[in-house]
Structure formats: structure tokens, C-alpha cells
Amino acid sequence: MERVVYSDNAATTPISKNVYNAMLPYLTGGYGNPSSLYKLGREEKKAVEQARSYVADYLNCDPNEIIFTSGGSEADNLAIKGLMFSGKLPKNKRHIITSTIEHHAVLYTCQFMERIGYDVTYVNVDEQGHIKLDELEQAITEDTALVSIMAANNEIGTIQPLKEIAEICHRKGTLFHTDAVQAVGHMKIDVKEMGIDMLSMSGHKLHGPKGVGALYCRKGIVLEPLIHGGGQERGKRSGTENVAGIVGLGEAVRYANEKMDEYIPYVTSLRDRLIEGVLKIPYTRLTGDPVNRLPGTASFVIECIEGESLILRLDLAGIATSTGSACSTGSLDPSHVLMAIGLPHEIAHGSLRVTLGEQNTVEDVDYLIEKINYVVKTLRDMSPVWDEKMSGEPMLKLFDK
Ligand SMILES: *Cc1c(COP(=O)(O)O)cnc(C)c1O
Fold first, then answer.
1. Ligand 1 atom at minimal distance to the Cα of residue 204
2. What are 297-336's pLDDT values in tens digits?
3. Cα–Cα distance between 399 and 386 in angstroms, integer?
4. Helix/strand/coil for 292
5. Which atom of ligand 1 is nearest to the CA of 102?
6. 154-195: per-residue pLDDT in tens?
7. Closest residue (by CA) to atom 10 of ligand 1?
8. Which residues form the pocket of ligand 1, taking CB atoms under 6 Å from any ligand atom?
9. Which of 195, 331, 350, 396 is deepest in the core (most CB within 10 A)?
10. DSSP strands (E only) in 105-253
């Protein structure tokens, strides 16, 4: 029987059985509109509010501080544009700060804001992908309205010091938004304790459905909606609710919250076994913070191979992984994250991201190690760059181990 190992959980996760079961009645039976007054509608409304309270429990906030959206991208857009367009900020507050390693949902939103006349500063990261806190602090001026820094990076897994970032923001009088799409369900988050003002999440990164997400927006912060209409989500996001999707997101968050103490050590042990195995390949390095990283994320650069070739050959062995970022597949530019942590182009091209989930097993990991070893060896055997490297006459200037 052919083996299939899905290990691209940072791109999307399989819907879990419990999520599927929770959603099913709202796809087959429940067809009332949550805004209507009859019984079917009331039941749908109740299901949406239950999901809202699961999300609020996980984040330690009030259910009224949760706005359901069409996903992580919309939540990021709503946080940034919604705040800047609110008309409630002092006139001078037209400056946004973000980082060089954000997801495109934040990065391209900020570039758009620049095009229409706002100022944006992109703070750099160190070689493990941590935000440079002193640089952040210096960048904040009295004109800064918002700092948007991701909770954990989708390519290299590095977790940011959220509490410290929030402290700096508040000390200097600005708000803090975090894109926590990779973090929700994979680490503990307490928005009150950490001082987070706004937070984005997405269903399909934690075994929920695609096309649904949420923005936590602290009470008192005024946002202009991106979508005007019937006034759903307390006027913050119009449009008839995606009831089944919201129920699925709620169940995914509830389940992750309940299982967190089992899930994190289990997936971390799989990840560390994989990292140990892959780093035995010569001229291979881990990217990101070796300790403070997402439990399932193992990311590498492997010299003298092309990431794309590696991914395609692993695919032939039934293995799903990725290189660079999934969203830019098809482009030949190395990922902006690997550039930002200071890797030279030729090294960044040989990147591999393996992201494990609770559905993976020790056998999966051993199969991954075996196949990655085999494919890297095969590719290097065909590579003139590898030949040169081994003969001690470097053709390209490459890093030494
Ligand atoms: C996947 C992802 C997004 C986008 O979420 P969607 O629900 O797919 O729109 C945003 N930010 C990060 C960090 C992500 O990993």
C-alpha cells in the first residue's frame, strides 16, 4: 500500500472528526437565518454564540470582543484598515509599524496603506526571526497608531515575545495587533495577560474549515467595517453568517483548548525527532528559533539542492511538504522571510518546511527522515554545485557548516 504523509499543516490542516461532526447538522438540517425570529433561526444564532464563547474562552476575553470573518486574511485587513479608517484616531496618527517577516495578508495590506498615503515602518528581525525590540521601540513615534507583529511565523516557526511587544506599544501610546493565525490552537494565548489589543485567527490552521476566521478586538477600540450591509457581528462585519463554518471554527478552538496539554508535548517530540534526523544530513541547518518555535514546525535550509525539486520528489514518495511559503509557489524569488533572516539567495533556495500535526505519528517521522535523506542524496549526486563543493573548489560562495 502506498504511504501518504501529510506534513504541510502550516499551509492548512485536515478537518478533524469532531469538527466535521459539529458542522454536519448545520449543513444538512439547519437552514434558518440566524437573524430571523423563528425557531430554526434562533437555533442557528445559538450555535454561533456558542462558537463565539469557545473562542473567547481560549483567548480569555469577552465573547462580544470576537468578530467572525471569512478567514485570517480578512481579520488582518479588518484590524489594520478598520482601525486606520475609523475616523476616531487623532489626526496625526497615520503611522503603522509591522515587521519584514509578516504574512502577505499583513505585508500587502501595509503596502496598500502606503500607496494611499499612510506611513509604514518595517522592523527587522535577527537571524532567528525575532523582532528587534530596540528597533521597534525607536520606530514608535507620537504619530504611530498601530503595531502589527505576528505571534508566530508561518515559515520558520519562531514565536515572538508578545507580552514584551505589547508592553513597549502601550508604554509608547500605540495599539498592538498580532496575526496569530499560526499560533491559535498551537500555544497558549491570553490576550488580557499578554496585553494584546487585536488578534487574528483562521479556522483551517487548527483542523477547522477553510473560509472562516475571527478577529479579537478589545472593547473600546473602534473599527470601521470593511463590509457594510445588514449589520451582523454587531455592525463590524455585515453578511449572513457562515453558520457551519463558525460552528466548525468554534469546535476546533474548543478541542484545541481542551487537548493542549497533550497535543503540545506530543507534536513537539515528533518535531524534535525529525529535526535531529534531518540535521544529520551534512550542510543542513535549522531555520528559526531552536527552542521558542511552534510545536509542529521543522524548517531547514539544505545546501546544494533546489527546494522545488526536493518537494516534487518527496511528493512522488507520498509526502506533502513545502518550500519557501506556499502562497508564493510558482515564483522563483526566495521567500521574504528567509531573506529577512539574512540567508544568501543560493542557500534560501534550498529551503524545506515540514509542519507536523496531531494526526502524524513516529512512523511518519521516520519515513520523512528516510525519504528526505534519500532525495537530498539523489539531488546532490546530480548537482554540479555539490561536485564543486566536495572537490574543495567552491564555484559559488557557500556557507560552511
Ligand atoms: C494562513 C495564514 C493567513 C491567512 O489566513 P486565511 O484564513 O488563509 O486567509 C494569515 N496569516 C498567517 C500567519 C497565516 O499562516
1. 7
2. 999 999 999 999 999 999 999 999 999 744 445 556 789 9
3. 13
4. coil
5. 13
6. 999 999 999 999 999 999 999 999 999 999 999 999 999 999
7. 72
8. 71-73, 103, 105, 150, 154, 179, 181-182, 202, 205, 213
9. 350
10. 119-123, 144-148, 175-179, 198-202, 213-217
